[in-house]
Amino acid sequence: MRFNSLVAAASFAALSSHSVSAGAEDGASFALNRLDPAPAGDAFFAVPSASVEGRLSFRAMGFIDYANRPLDVTALNTGKDVASVVLHQATLHGNVTVALFDRVALNLDVPAVIQSGEAFASGGSALPAPATTGTGNIRVGGRGKLWGDARGLVHVGLGGYLFLPTTGDYASDPRVRGWVHALASGEAKKRVRYALAVGPEFREDRELLNVSQGSRLSYSAAAAALLGPNRELQLGPEVVGTVPFGGIDARTVSLDVLVGAKYRFLEDFTVGAGAGTALSAGVGSPRARAMLSLSWAPAIEVAKRVNDADADGDTIPDNEDACPENAGVASTEAKANGCPPAQDKDGDGVADPLDACVDQAGVASPDPKANGCPRSGDKDGDGIADGIDACPDKAGVASADAKTHGCPLLDTDGDGVTDASDACVDKSGVASADAKTNGCPAASDGDGDGVLDDVDACPAQAGLASANPALRGCPISTALDKTAAGLEFEVGKAVLRPTSEAVVDALATMLKEHPELTKLEVQSHTDNQGAKRINKTISQDRAAAVVAALAKRGVAGARLVAKGYGDEQPLVANDTPEGQQKNRRVAFVVLEKK
Q1: What CATH number has the domain spanning 56-296?
Q2: CATH classification of 475-593, choosing from 3.30.43.10, 3.60.140.10, 3.40.50.300, 3.30.1330.60?
Q3: What is the pLDDT at residue 9?
Q4: CA distances (Å), 33 to each of 36, 55, 91, 96, 171, in order?
């Protein structure tokens, strides 16, 4: 018969400096749950680890713990349950851990409780029904690693927590309590891990229905197997218990047994699920318990503190051992070093893992595809046996591709640069350290301005470098004219359209960058449409409008002379619309320069 009962003189945990009856107003003011979650990022549900990983790293976890009938009332004379004061209790924990300097881990746990049950009253003693929601003791504290190598066999640490009171019914003690504990944890052969924690929990004495509750020894232990190719699945049991420092009997001792699984996914996330029951009769010992967790713990690249770690004991350090979990022998072959001696089915002295012809006795060869195979002919003398030579009649080179193994490297254009690295496969060229031009014809610079012809916008005129491909390699006067071609005026007016603002900005920038041009004529030309006198006038006005716009942008007016030529200087014949368009233009002519 379980005795998580308060009438049957059951154990009951609540802090108070004096004795109280069950009818006191704070009858529900005690922390019922005996299971506290391990800090976010730890391996187990309820057993903290001793290790600390990360110089400054954060981990977070959501943890749900459900307990069924953690607080029943049982009649002493019949042994029957008469009330479930707390029938269901679900606790949702928000848990955050910060690791510092690979040595200290700080933790905060905030629990929220959802629960149901019924009130009980008898002989002047009473327990109220729990509030549906509440907040549990807020846990703050941490641990420090005292000794041990990262992810080694043994770590030793020391931890401590304070549990701060809140107002949750059956979820929080009314006063601060604390837990100091020694820790040990580690891994064996990378497939088994464990953790242990033990230490005193300090809380003020309180007596309820003649059952004393106070300070106690808390202990927990866990072990798990790590499964899967990347150890992503963890399965194992956990044990959590408490023993009071005085008045030990079946009503004051708690012991929970759990079995759980955790699965790591997306590298940094772990989901867990577990279940268990209590083997004890103490208050807070549920008939059934279930747990769910989701944690985020970024992987920490752990540097080896011991360079000669040797998990399989074969005297070959793990960082050099190709089979770190199986004792083996040394080998000059990295893939076999530290592995058990390999079989040699054909007895040719070449181990099967390295033998390309496992069932045929052969000879050693530096070519992995021929190693351990019988000698065969090599008609083309390229060192690759005919049996595996894709081009046995043409000397070639080794290749990982069986279709080209032993074949000559292709050079379609015959320039000595093989097709695999030739940027111009169909054009004979020259070798170059630049992968983009390797094997391409040598670039020329016809005007000698340092801008190669293939990117020179004015290959026949020495010019200047420019970030604008349309102006690159052009003289400044040509660059100005090309830019000015974007100027547009209102029809029949000397008013620049808004679309010309960016063009004027560009012209002003170019003129400021070339102060050596001390005097320029800003010319405006028209086509032959309309009266010559009108064309001459409007062209003069438009040239003046451009000068004014440039002066507004900081170009000294003394450097610019506005000149309208009307239709006097056409570039091409005005007998087509296209020709007329070309003749309507603004041009710059350098008059003086330093």
Answers
A1: 2.40.160.40
A2: 3.30.1330.60
A3: 35
A4: 8, 33, 9, 20, 7
Cβ pair 441, 428 in contact under 8 A: yes
The residue ranges of every structural domain in the chain are 56-296, 475-593
Which candidate, 198, 179, 113, 153, places its Cα nearest to that of 306? 153
CA 404 to chain centre: 40
Please report how the helices 501-513 and 476-484 are oriented relative to each other, as an axis angle in degrees rounded to 10: 170
Instruction: Give pLDDT, residue 183.
Output: 96
Name the stretches of the chain with pLDDT < 50: 1-3, 5-25, 301-307
Q: What are the residues facing 193 on neighbouring strands?
A: 187, 224
| Range 202-206, long-range pairs (CB < 8 A, 24+ positions) | 202/177, 202/178, 203/13, 203/15, 203/173, 203/175, 203/177, 203/178, 204/15, 204/16, 204/17, 204/175, 204/177, 205/16, 205/17, 206/12, 206/13, 206/14, 206/15, 206/16, 206/19, 206/20, 206/30
Question: What pLDDT digit, counting tens, does each position of 369-420 carry?
Answer: 878 887 666 777 777 877 788 888 888 888 888 877 888 877 888 887 888 7
Q: Quote the pLDDT of residue 189.
A: 84
Write the pLDDT tens digit of every residue in 331-371: 887 777 888 776 777 878 788 878 888 787 778 888 888 78
